[in-house]
């Protein structure tokens, strides 16, 4: 028997997995928004006025302006569904008396798996090959057909050796025998040999695959710019599973069109869900629709973590995952 929480109205801004919705309905006085699109400005303002806790997610742009519109919010917690919370101005939330939590760890393995999927698809031209077979134009195997980049023994550069970056590096090293290099402010302790590069440009210049796994937000916006892309080797591939804004998309398109890099594997986009026609037109680009955490198990795990934070807030306990 799940206890009913008398106090507190909860809004969940998207439909969730059945398991998460069932727990939320049993445990809280909850409203679950039926729409899958991000919250409008008016909806976000109303959410801060009418609910004690809001389970928000990617695309719900709780900017400083939204908080400024509600001087005395009823809301005490924005429990973000997802580890990345660059869509929420956490400083402005705190100034308004609203805590922010996220779901670290629940997303790590699944997102690392998608990074490896993109590394393999990009290096081995899997998307292009699949489109060839589907087109009916495949003329058959021959020794020089669609040659790609062999990953085994190659060098992987990780930008952002945190939870996901480390899970990617582990998979790449122990699964594919790849050498690992990374950039960070200080040396990291790892379960595999890993070399810290002097700078991002130096890292870009020395690797076969460069994978982006830093958080989004103002500090990392356009971290991967024309200078970094120009430093990469012509046979190298860029993989981004972090946030679209970390990569200067116009510079990436220019580098790909000029053949300055061999390919890119992207799960996220600068102006998501808009994906430039130029990217969609290029065979050497693998495009996924932000699939990092898209499995039933993982989305339920994320939802339960968010609900654990909701429960803690409503019961006056310490929040498990403050950002
Ligand atoms: N594609 C997806 O579906 C998906 C899924 C989950 C997470 N993500 C994104 O991945 C990000 C990382 O998640 P995580 O759990 O690994 O976070 P994390 O905090 O564990 O790791 C991020 C790492 O990046 C490092 N970092 C920050 N700025 C840096 C910089 N300028 N240069 C080098 N390193 C820098 C941090 O020190 C940290 O080690 C999330 O913030 C989110 O935006 C995407
Ligand atoms: O940050 C995350 O957890 C994913 O991108 C989904 O929000």
From TrEMBL:
Residues 116-292 form the D-isomer specific 2-hydroxyacid dehydrogenase NAD-binding domain. Keywords: NAD, Oxidoreductase. It comes from Tritonibacter horizontis. The keyword Metal-binding does not apply. Its EC number is 1.1.1.29. SUPFAM superfamilies: Formate/glycerate dehydrogenase catalytic domain-like, NAD(P)-binding Rossmann-fold domains. This is Glycerate dehydrogenase. The lineage of its organism: Bacteria, Pseudomonadati, Pseudomonadota, Alphaproteobacteria, Rhodobacterales. The keyword NAD applies. Belongs to the D-isomer specific 2-hydroxyacid dehydrogenase family. CDD domains: GDH. GO terms for cellular component: cytosol. Residues 10-323 form the D-isomer specific 2-hydroxyacid dehydrogenase catalytic domain. GO terms for molecular function: glyoxylate reductase (NADPH) activity; hydroxypyruvate reductase (NADH) activity; NAD binding. It is an enzyme of class 1 (oxidoreductase). Gene3D superfamilies: NAD(P)-binding Rossmann-like Domain.
């Amino acid at each position: 028997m799940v206890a009913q929480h008398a106090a507190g109205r909860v809004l969940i801004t998207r439909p969730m997995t059945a398991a998460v919705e069932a727990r939320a309905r049993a445990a809280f006085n909850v409203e679950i928004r039926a729409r899958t699109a991000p919250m409008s400005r008016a909806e976000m303002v109303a959410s801060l006025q009418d609910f004690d806790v809001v389970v928000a997610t990617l695309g719900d742009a709780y900017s400083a302006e939204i908080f400024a519109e509600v001087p005395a919010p009823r809301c005490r917690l924005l429990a973000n569904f997802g580890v990345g919370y660059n869509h929420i101005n956490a400083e402005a939330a705190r100034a308004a008396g609203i805590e922010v939590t996220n779901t670290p760890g629940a997303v790590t393995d699944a997102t690392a798996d998608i990074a490896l999927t993109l590394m393999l698809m990009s290096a081995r031209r899997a998307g292009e090959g699949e489109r060839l077979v589907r087109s009916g134009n495949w003329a058959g195997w021959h020794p020089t057909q669609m040659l790609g980049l062999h990953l085994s023994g190659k060098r992987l550069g990780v930008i952002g050796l945190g939870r996901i970056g480390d899970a990617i590096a582990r998979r790449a090293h122990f699964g594919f025998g790849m050498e690992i290099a990374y950039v960070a402010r200080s040396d990291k302790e790892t379960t595999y040999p890993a070399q810290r590069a002097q700078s991002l440009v130096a890292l870009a210049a020395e690797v076969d695959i460069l994978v982006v796994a830093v958080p989004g937000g103002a500090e990392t916006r356009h971290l991967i710019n024309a200078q970094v892309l120009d430093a990469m080797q012509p046979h190298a591939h860029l993989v981004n599973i972090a946030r679209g804004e970390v990569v200067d998309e116009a510079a990436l398109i220019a580098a790909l069109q000029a053949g300055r890099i061999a390919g890119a594997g992207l799960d996220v986009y600068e102006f998501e869900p808009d994906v430039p026609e130029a990217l969609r037109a290029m065979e050497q680009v693998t495009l996924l629709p932000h699939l990092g955490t898209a499995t039933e198990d993982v989305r339920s795990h994320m939802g339960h973590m968010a609900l654990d934070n909701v429960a803690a807030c409503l019961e006056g306990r310490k929040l498990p995952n403050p950002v």
